[in-house]
């Protein structure tokens, strides 16, 4: 799919005149770069976003446009498509970032956020409290994304925990996965929300089904296969 086709099929931001666009740092980039799926092009846009004075406005604008019916392409507001999908999933749960505060956090605490880049947003929010900053995990998550962290909800390492990621989802995240599934969020978007692979959520879901069946057999509700 060409950049032009994407532009035509996407009702979003860049085609619409807004006063703040005059300050956009990506104005010199061509559409093929802006709507590209390649990592190299996405890095180029993200580099522009890092110094962009209208990043928060850009992100709030695009999140208002990218409804579930529309495909999500390119880097906008400093975030990758998968990060914007994760943000949309937060919204399903009623969690919205304060983008002004995320901008301040990125400016004032950027060095610390980079230092904590392997932590989860919830852990970083706790750390920031020690510095007198009260910020919601979703706001911290955006600030972490803006400073280059993956900001996954499930940290890649968890001390001396030897469980695989899917086992940690199985053990600790059933409630949120089931809630999101019940609200119609796809498994792929749930995976992006958690910051894991789709297959890892799939494995956890299969384990819950097996466990539920065993429990039902034990309780005599269904017969053993
Ligand atoms: S935040 Fe990024 S995509 Fe948005 S206007 Fe600025 S440079 Fe362009």
List keywords for this structure.
single chain; 225 residues; mainly alpha; 3 domains; 12 helices; 0% strand; binds iron/sulfur cluster
Which segments are poorly predicted (pLDDT under 50) over 5 or more consecutive residues? 8-13
In total, the number of domains comes to: 3
Shape verdict = globular
Strand content: under 5%
> What oligomeric state is this?
single chain
Radius of gyration, CA atoms, in whole angstroms = 20 Å
Largest sheet: none
Q: Give the number of DSSP strands.
A: 0
Number of helices, counting only DSSP H or I runs of 4 residues or more: 12
Distance between the terminal alpha carbons, to the nearest Å? 47 Å
SSE topology string: HHHHHHHHHHHH
Mean residue pLDDT: 88
Structural class: mainly alpha
Which cofactors or ions or other ligands sit in this model? iron/sulfur cluster
Helix content class = 55-70%
């Amino acid at each position: 799919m060409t950049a032009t086709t994407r532009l035509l099929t996407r009702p979003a931001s860049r085609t619409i005149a807004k006063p703040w666009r005059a300050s956009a740092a990506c104005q010199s980039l061509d559409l093929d770069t802006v709507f590209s799926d390649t990592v190299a092009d996405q890095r180029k846009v993200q580099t522009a976003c890092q110094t962009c004075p209208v990043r928060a406005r850009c992100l709030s604008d695009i999140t208002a446009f990218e409804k579930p019916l529309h495909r999500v392409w390119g880097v906008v507001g400093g975030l990758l498509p998968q990060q914007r999908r994760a943000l949309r999933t937060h919204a399903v749960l009623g969690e919205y970032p304060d983008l002004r505060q995320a901008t301040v956090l990125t400016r004032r605490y950027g060095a610390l956020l980079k230092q904590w880049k392997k932590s989860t947003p919830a852990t970083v929010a706790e750390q920031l409290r020690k510095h007198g900053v009260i910020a919601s995990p979703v706001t911290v998550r955006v600030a972490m994304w803006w400073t280059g962290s993956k900001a996954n909800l499930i940290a890649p390492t968890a001390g001396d925990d030897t469980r695989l990621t899917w086992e940690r989802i199985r053990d600790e995240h059933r409630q949120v996965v089931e809630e999101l599934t019940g609200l119609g969020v796809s498994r792929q978007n749930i995976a992006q929300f958690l910051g894991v692979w789709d297959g890892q959520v799939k494995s956890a879901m299969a384990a819950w089904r097996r466990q539920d069946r065993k429990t039902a057999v034990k309780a005599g509700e269904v017969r053993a296969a």
